[in-house]
């Protein structure tokens, strides 16, 4: 059987990422204490910083096979470093994709740091070969390692960043209270990290997510609208100034870096900012390629040796993968340049450095999402905003059936849903295929009341105020990030005279 997506092959049962109200979370978690909002009213910002010790873990040894986006991730993730040189000269060309001439990039490889059964998944090989080996080994870990070893020439001691990106990873770790899987290394990292419970990718697709992470710009602004590889062939715009380009310009070298144990052995761990997260949600229904919570919620650990104050604590701040570029620039004290990708429209980062959060809990309650494609056939633009417990999704092509990608189609989960549906049998799913394919233009959910996002409140007059507030926030962000879709689907962006939306009178 060919597996696509993730499958447990050991003990335990498959488990999707826990919602905030997951009963496995300890009763002192903020989700249990968050005041229930009056319908139509926004809740007050969550509680401040708190320290929570995670319960002891029951370590069993299930094995997890990963495929899916790994082989089709296409978009390079940074490998960097002044520490080792990239293995493949051919990757230099792909640096241009990020807008960084001469920047060395690779898809990364499986890291031995996190994998007790990672034989054959060499971290030095990187790229597709590494991915294929990991897939075929059957012992694969679920982490795709991206390392960014960075050395700053402006300081007495070098500063480094290690960025570890799981491919299609979810919350399968002890740090997020999953006791069915053994992740001792991640748990150890969590003990010296701030653990984010409300971290999101801005786009639920592999190459676009990586491009967004490494530019700090949403997909509609950096140009990586869909997958990079094969016939999909999406690329970021030539003039995008990516993180590797900015780091290289500052004299910071990028290349294949070292994993944690090696950093410790080299005596540079205490000079290294370590970030662990995932590129997109788990490859299950409502997951990858969707802007629903399972498609965008990500684990995120940020460990700074210079910010031990909140090690082991949990942050409720709403943060985004769009925050990682400003975080890494902040770590190296590099300002973001003033420039335009097109015309005179100056690029502004809408993400924020996470370093201050390592000192004190902020009242950050809003993150945005933007998706246009996955595969080239999957034009289904969506924009979204999380604001506190409310989540708004704008489906621009809501008259179309939601598109399905090839990997997801052949997954046992989706095949089972198809077979049971066509046979008229119950699926046990909380949705049906018709609901999944055909979506309302606006979807508004209260995740406090409805963690599975099944009860659309957009047409409920009690939530009109909330709907309008989130719509206003969303369109403001779209203008700020120069979204070409900002006027769709009932208007057209007309920029010949002055940028404005012109009505189409298309009955929407
Ligand atoms: Ca992925």
Automatic annotation (TrEMBL):
Domain named Sulfatase N-terminal: residues: 159-255, 256-333
GO molecular function: N-sulfoglucosamine sulfohydrolase activity
Entry's Gene Ontology BP terms: glycosaminoglycan catabolic process; heparan sulfate proteoglycan catabolic process
Sequence ranges assigned to domain N-sulphoglucosamine sulphohydrolase C-terminal in this UniProt record: 425-477
UniProt feature, compositional bias: Basic and acidic residues: 85-96
Keyword entries, A-Z: Glycoprotein, Hydrolase, Signal
Region (Disordered): 1-63, 80-103
SUPFAM superfamilies: Alkaline phosphatase-like (SSF53649)
UniProt feature, compositional bias: Pro residues: 16-26
Cofactor: Ca(2+)
Coiled coil: none
Similarity annotation: Belongs to the sulfatase family.
Protein name listed in UniProt: Uncharacterized protein
